[in-house]
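Please, structure for the following, as tokens.
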Amino acid sequence: MRNLNPVLPVPALIAAFAAAFIILLIVWLLSRESRIKSTFALVRRTAILAIAFIIALRPMKEEYGTDVSLSNLDVLFVLDTTLSMWADDGPVTTRIKAAKTDIENIMEALPGANFGLITFQNKSSVVSPFTQDSEAVIRYLNTIKVPDRYYLKGSSMNVPYYDIENMLVSSDRKENRQTIIFFLSDGEDTNPNPGPYTYEELGFMVDGGAVIGYGTEAGGEMMDEYGYNVYFSGSFNKGVSCIDEDNLEKIADELGIEYLNCTETDTLSDMLEEVMEGSGSVTERNSDYTFYGDTYFKYVPYLTALLLLELFISIRNNVKVRRIHGKNKSRKTK
């Protein structure tokens, strides 16, 4: 695909070069030289004008892939999207909204990093593999909706274990990489059979990050996907979800990272500064990167050649005129 980046607006360029061409035509019509010589001069000068017009349009070609210097960070977000994350005791409104805001702030604080996103409810899903496109991750975040209350069967912090393992392994295989993980959840575990997994087996592949907890000990009420209050099964009491910090601290200990409550924004900011200061850079071939490269320089040699030809012809004609003038002058002297 080609594009133009003209030095002036295209209508102005067309008007300027059209006026120049009209002048060339007038000079050709009024020329006293032989028709062959004057036509040859017109063709040369029109070619110069045409190539100059193309260069002024600055044609560009779309190119894919380039070597770029990037941060050596792989940042993995593991986001709890169970119904309890829609409880209304988040720092602003709901827990899930606070978690999404934190993810966006973390991405902004770690420019140049690769970002991956895992979400989990009854099942886990790798929503976004590691990518430089932070805008794509934000778009994925904005598609997350309240889960269907009738589909839910209780939540477990072990659900995303295998997806986390696969993502950490993929990062660990890269050279000169630091893998940072942020596990964002309220820690509530309501599945009667949570599974025997322990995140301690994955800790050796983690270089930093935090488990961030959302919610309060007093708890918050939840709305379902239709905007109705969720009630405890078999009762008329509104469902209330409370943060389980013991669960979250346990995950943090197993992964070898810190546990933070979502209200500890200063601590998170300090941590992100340390992560950024301790990061390095790597040069990668980014095939997803698209840019437009200038191609006008390809026409410069042709323009240069025509200008040199025009200069040569002009000098030769001046020399001829001077010789003729000198001969005529000597004849008059005699």
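The chain has two domains: 2-63+293-333, 73-279. The chain is about 40% helix and 20% strand.
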